[in-house]
């Protein structure tokens, strides 16, 4: 149950991030609406909460957890690049957006493979 909720929030987080980027280009005035400001934070918070619950349910804290540390570190990169994407303009905006999506993909691959260095 928690895993399905977590996966749902993963998809909602990606949709919210992409949606905010689309809105920032197509109709920037919509970014001032309260729901557009608050909803992505609520979704991301629930994603993080369900992730923490999964760690304790899966007893991953007792064994090999390097992949989990890698996910947390790259999560900070995703957040930073996402902030840059929303605040920048022009080429820098899209480079930051691409970097954030790359972080998101990395986190997903590591979640499935349980290997932080899957590319080696």
Walk me through the topology.
Layout lengths: L1 H25 L7 H25 L7 H22 L2 H24 L7
Helix pairs in contact: 1-2, 3-4
Features:
single chain, mainly alpha, 4 helices, 120 residues
Structural class: mainly alpha
Question: What oligomeric state best describes the polypeptide chains here?
Answer: single chain
Low-confidence segments: none
* Proportion in β-strands: under 5%
Helical stretch tally:
4
Q: Compute the separation of the termini in Å.
A: 33 Å
Give the SSE string: HHHH
Mean pLDDT: 90
**Measured on Cα atoms, how large is the radius of gyration?**
15 Å
Shape: globular
Largest sheet: none
How many beta-strand elements?
A: 0
Helical content (DSSP H or I, runs of 4+) = over 70%
Question: Number of domains in the coordinates?
Answer: 2
Describe this protein's structure:
This protein has 120 residues and is an all-alpha fold. The protein has two domains: 1-63; 64-120. The protein has helices at 2-26, 34-58, 66-87, 90-113. Helix 1 (2-26) packs antiparallel against helix 2 and helix 3 packs antiparallel against helix 4. It starts with a helix and ends in a 7-residue tail after the last helix. The mean pLDDT is 90.
Tell me briefly what this model is.
The protein is mainly alpha-helical and 120 residues long. It has helices spanning 2-26, 34-58, 66-87, 90-113.
């Amino acid at each position: 149950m928690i895993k399905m909720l977590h996966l749902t929030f993963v998809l909602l987080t990606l949709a919210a991030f992409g949606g905010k980027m689309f809105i920032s280009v197509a109709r920037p005035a919509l970014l001032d609406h309260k729901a557009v400001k608050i909803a992505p934070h609520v979704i991301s918070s629930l994603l993080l909460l369900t992730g923490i619950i999964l760690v304790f349910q899966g007893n991953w804290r007792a064994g090999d957890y390097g992949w989990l540390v890698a996910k947390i570190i790259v999560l900070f990169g995703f957040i930073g690049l996402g902030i840059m994407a929303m605040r920048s303009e022009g080429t820098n905006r899209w480079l930051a957006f691409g970097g954030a999506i790359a972080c998101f993909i990395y986190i997903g691959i590591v979640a499935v493979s349980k290997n932080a260095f899957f590319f080696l």
